[in-house]
Specification:
Strand 15 (402-410) and strand 16 (418-426) form a beta hairpin. A nine-stranded mixed sheet has the order 16-15-14-13-7-12-11-8-17, with helices on both faces. The longest helix is centred in the middle third of the chain and has 26 residues, at 243-268. It is globular and about 80 Å long. The relative contact order is 0.14. It has helices at 2-6, 8-16, 32-47, 67-81, 89-97, 107-124, 141-151, 173-184, 202-212, 243-268, 277-290, 299-302, 427-431, 438-448, 457-476, 492-499; strands at 22-27, 55-61, 99-103, 130-134, 161-165, 192-194, 226-234, 303-309, 311-313, 316-318, 336-342, 352-358, 365-372, 392-398, 402-410, 418-426, 483-485. Helix 8 packs antiparallel against helix 15, helix 10 (243-268) crosses helix 11 (277-290) and helix 11 packs parallel to helix 15. It contains 16 helices and 17 strands. It has 508 residues and is α/β, with parallel strands linked by helices.
Length: 508
């Protein structure tokens, strides 16, 4: 299985304990996230026999659908979005049997849900164990949670209750805290699973394996040997289909506050005492607390924002951001962000972490590049080392998952001539299996009650503490975000930004 080979630290945990009999209730059960990601992931888990025998999925929506109509809708979604195609008819028949639907348009709908869950507990023996998943717009989170509390749907007998909350978790520190307080009215903190799907990606998890399961990397993973770190999340897509959401979020809230900062914590954290939720998340929070805030007077020096204009992606013309529907003609929403961050602790003092994300860039790519310092003394002539670049360890998260290490080697010619070459590890070629989708991993962990790959309350708050001052400084500034043509790697200001430090961006 891919899980066993690709992630040895988690393999033992995953294989040792099958989730208990339970019910998964999906609010927004007919929405885009459910049809594209959640239900296909659940089907793939069923195909791998990783779901408990006594298990049911209850989709919640406003439409008046029967179970049969709901199953018919989802069969089409699974056929299109599952990573295992075509559909296995035998697996689908068994899976669809436990795929149910409840229409909730008012408080009375929660009474229908409570009765349906009670019947499932009786018929399947699920014992009141329930995982609630909020796959709805964020504005619906608080009303749903409060209705769950009022209707006494959450707890039944001695069964456990958990809730998965999708990002964005708040718009700033104040709203994140308010949402946590609402959730705490019904759920305990250990029952809340704040999901960031990037943490479910195999290559992101492999950052921990690379560091803590290999003796050769950890000794050089510090300011003594690392010159700087670059983390890039590039998207070729524009904001077209999500323009209404994106106008209120921008790249900082959409990617930096969650995905990028979470990846940074995995790169920079200290070794945890054990690979368990509390220990891992404690170390991540320490990194966030050690990060140097960006003061208002440092915003221009340590940040760059941008907004894409019309250009070309793979030779095809694409419109600019402001030309999109539901985008204000004079919108200042950033579609590109670059930051320079520092982790002020013993390991990383003075080492810059450059973060970059943007829409309408030349390609889709997410990677972490650890660039090492130059050798302390060059024994080879400048002519001999003309083709030599710094040693760089690159962790490719997507789309071509893998790890490469760049080092200098002698060119096979008379005399000494050095050129940089790469040792490359590619997941697909090494394991000959497909890695599980991030949502498969995270759903399975939530059913088990394993919060290792989910963000804790204090993590979210520390992330907002870093991001909020920058957002306020941008908002108070009269300057517009610099423009960059679609199909390029961001505004010129981003190149000047890193160039001032004598460095340059890696091109994934």
């Amino acid at each position: 299985m891919a899980v066993t080979s690709a992630n040895p630290l988690r393999a033992g945990l995953r294989l040792a304990r099958v989730p208990e009999p339970s019910v998964m209730v999906i609010f927004g059960g007919t929405g885009d996230l459910s049809t594209r990601k959640l239900v296909p992931a659940l089907y793939d888990l069923a195909r791998q026999r990783l779901l408990p025998a006594a298990f049911a999925i209850v989709g919640i929506g406003r439409a008046a659908l029967t179970d049969s109509e709901y199953r018919a809708q989802l069969r089409e979604a699974v056929a299109e979005n599952s990573r295992s195609r075509p559909i296995d008819e035998e697996v689908w028949a068994s899976f669809a049997e436990r795929l149910l639907y409840v229409s909730v348009r008012s408080e009375e709908g929660y009474d229908d849900l409570r009765r349906r869950l009670a019947r499932i507990d009786t018929d399947l023996g699920t014992g009141g164990d329930r995982l609630f998943y909020l796959a709805t717009p964020p504005v619906a989170y608080a009303p749903i949670v409060r209705s769950l509390g009022r209707s006494e749907v959450v707890r039944s007998g001695t069964g456990w209750a958990r809730i998965v909350v999708e990002k964005p978790f708040g718009r700033d520190l104040e709203t994140a805290r308010a949402l946590t307080e609402t959730l705490h009215e019904v759920f305990k903190e250990e029952e809340i699973f704040r999901i960031d799907h990037y943490l479910g990606k195999e290559t992101v998890q492999n950052i921990l394996v690379l560091r803590f399961a290999n003796a050769i990397f950890e000794p050089v993973w510090s300011r003594q040997y690392v010159d700087h770190v670059q983390i890039t999340v590039a998207e070729a897509l524009g904001a077209d289909e999500r323009a209404e959401y994106y106008e209120g979020a921008g790249a900082m809230r959409d990617i930096v506050q969650n995905h990028l900062l979470q990846i940074l914590t995995l790169v920079a954290m200290e070794p945890p005492a054990a690979f368990e939720a509390g220990a891992v998340r404690d170390e991540k929070v320490k990194v966030l607390r050690a990060m140097r805030p960006i003061r208002p007077d440092e915003t221009a020096e340590r940040t760059v924002r941008g907004q894409y204009t019309a250009g070309f992606i793979e030779g095809d013309p694409v419109p600019g951001y402001r030309e999109g529907r539901e985008v204000a003609p004079e919108s200042r929403t950033e579609t590109f962000v670059a930051l320079k961050l520092f982790v002020d602790n013993w390991r990383w003092e003075g080492t810059p972490f450059y973060l970059r994300t943007g829409k309408r860039m030349p390609k889709r790519a997410t990677e972490v590049a650890i660039q090492f310092r130059a050798v302390p003394h060059q024994v080879f002539s400048a002519e001999a080392r003309d083709g030599l670049e710094p040693n760089t360890l690159v962790i490719r998260v997507q789309p071509e998952e893998g790890i490469s290490l760049k080092f200098g080697a002698k060119v096979p010619v008379q005399g000494i001539r050095i050129r940089s070459v790469a040792m490359d590890f590619v997941y697909g070629a090494s394991f000959l299996v497909d890695a599980p989708d991030a949502y498969e991993t995270l759903i399975l962990d939530a059913l088990r009650g394993d919060g290792t790959l989910f963000t804790r309350k204090d993590e979210v708050e520390e992330q907002w503490r870093l991001v909020d001052p920058v957002l306020r400084a941008w908002q108070e500034s009269d300057a517009e975000p610099p423009a960059y043509p679609a199909g390029t790697w961001g505004p010129t200001e981003a190149d000047l930004f890193i160039g001032r430090d004598g460095r340059r961006w890696r091109q994934p």
